[in-house]
Design brief:
Number of helices of chain A: 16
Distance between the termini of chain A: 28 Å
Oligomer: heterodimer
Distance between the termini of chain B: 24 Å
Number of domains of chain A: 2
Number of domains of chain B: 1
CATH topology of chain B: SH3 type barrels
Shape of chain B: globular
Largest interface: A-B, 53 and 35 residues
Helix content of chain A: 25-40%
Shape of chain A: globular
CATH architecture of chain B: Roll
Number of strands of chain B: 5
């Protein structure tokens, strides 16, 4: 806590020098991406340290087929879609929820799954479909809401389950093997739920260091120092640089809830395809709260925009500026891909803060 | 979207609590943190307390979030904008 930014920078530079070759680290979480930009950390990094963004923005990884299913549900009479606001502008094959709302569909932005539940409780004549989007931070809220709906016997509340798991996505990137990754800066608040120990397979099986860090600039720098020191020493362990908030075992109550209500399933990720055992679906006892089941909607295929390289951006294969559409056809006002839609999307962050960097001459 | 924000539990009844988000009051669920009591600091995400944390960490996080997020802090905690509660 007491080390200053300058001290941490010096430690990072020394650690990078000790490695003596280019080092590539993935910050998995969109909130880290944004914090790194907002705090101007990128220009402060040693020359041989490169940070790439990972598949850690829930909006960015939601498969187009799930957006299409949400659009199909929104078109059903008597259905109201309740969703976190970030999902409103994500393009499906035809339009977005925002455009569908403008055309008369009932779509409501909520900041909490509880609000979706309350909408259902207070409007028994209306079918409320909640878009269950997010990683392990967000999934317990969805699941708790399903249990609440069961408890009070709501038959007008369902969830379109799009929840994703972080560790299988990290493993899938390493299995693909085409992006050199020396280590992972692991997300702070996902780790509150899953616990630092959840990353052990990445360290043990894949021999990559993982450090859990918070979102403040000093916490990110401390995480990077810990990572690069491990890399320099040829070690691969899980370290928790955010132990004031993250426990090794995570939140056992939340994990038990997920286990009780959900099953781990193969899941489609936007532009990444289906990753084995990387998503959560409602288990057999709770299938009646599944929107796809209730409304007999079938997931189609994804047909991503041919110009969009979001899939390569969120796997560290290219930087946003390598995409021909970035900043030209694709801007926050006219997003082609989800990474430009979400405020935590890698492209949106590069677009917003890249201009600041350019002005600084960095 | 995976950001949680700290708040202080003011009152608790069953699985519901009222928290103070630096002057802003918000009703949340404590179903994921059954151990929390009034006076405790919790991290809140989308209307749910997801863990307990100590006051020093909570205040440091606040200072950072206030600069970084401004008005969006309450939204990350699950607060709905005024007049946008449960009427459909």
């Amino acid at each position: 806590m007491s080390r200053s930014i300058d001290e941490l920078r010096a430690e990072l530079t020394a650690a990078c020098r000790a490695v003596g070759r280019p080092v590539q680290i993935m910050e998995v979480c969109g909130t880290h991406t944004v914090s790194i930009f907002r705090n101007g950390l990128r220009p402060l990094l040693p020359e041989n340290l490169r940070l790439v963004s990972g598949p850690g923005c829930p909006v960015c990884v939601t498969a187009q087929r799930h957006i299409d299913a949400a659009l199909e549900l929104a078109a059903r009479p008597g259905v109201l879609i309740a969703t976190y606001g970030d999902m409103m502008r994500v393009p499906g094959r035809r339009g977005s929820l925002e455009r569908q709302r403008a055309a008369g569909a009932q779509v409501r932005v909520v900041n909490s799954a509880r609000s979706a539940f309350e909408l259902a409780r207070d409007n028994p004549a209306q079918q409320i479909v909640f878009l269950g989007v997010g990683f392990e931070t967000t999934a317990p809220a969805t699941v708790a809401t399903v249990l609440a709906a069961e408890r009070v016997g709501l038959d007008n509340f369902t969830v379109l389950m799009c929840h994703k798991l972080v560790v299988p996505a990290m493993a899938a990137l390493l299995d693909a093997g085409d992006v050199p990754l020396d280590g992972f800066l692991a997300p702070g608040h996902v780790s509150v739920i899953i616990g630092a120990a959840a990353y052990r397979p990445i360290a043990e099986r894949y021999r990559r260091p993982v450090v859990v860090a918070g979102f403040e600039p000093d916490s990110i720098l401390r995480g990077l120092v810990a990572l690069v020191r491990q890399i320099a020493g040829g070690r691969a362990a899980v370290e928790n640089a955010y132990s004031a908030v993250v426990r090794d075992e995570g939140n056992r109550v939340a994990l038990d809830l997920l286990e009780r209500v959900c099953v781990v399933a193969d899941a489609p990720w936007r532009a990444l395809g289906v990753i084995p055992r990387s998503g959560l679906e409602l288990g057999p006892a709770y299938r009646r709260f599944d929107a796809l089941e209730r409304f007999d909607v079938h997931l189609g295929e994804d047909e991503d925009h041919p110009a969009c390289r979001c899939g390569e951006v969120i796997t560290g294969r290219v930087l946003p500026a390598d995409c021909a559409a970035f900043g030209r056809a694709c801007t926050p006002l006219t997003p082609i891909g989800p990474c430009m839609v979400s405020s935590e999307g890698t492209c949106a962050a590069w677009y917003k803060y890249g201009q600041v960097l350019a002005e600084r001459g960095a | 979207m995976c950001l949680a924000v700290p708040g202080k539990i003011l009152t608790r009844a069953g699985e519901e609590a009222t928290v103070d988000l630096q002057g802003n009051q918000l009703r949340i669920s404590t179903v994921l943190t059954p151990e929390v009591r009034p006076g405790d600091w919790v991290l809140i995400h989308a209307g749910f307390a997801i863990s307990q944390l100590d006051e020093q960490e909570a205040l440091e996080t606040w200072d950072y979030l206030r600069l970084a997020l401004g008005e969006d802090i309450a939204a990350a905690a699950g607060q709905e904008p005024p007049g946008r509660t449960s009427e459909a």
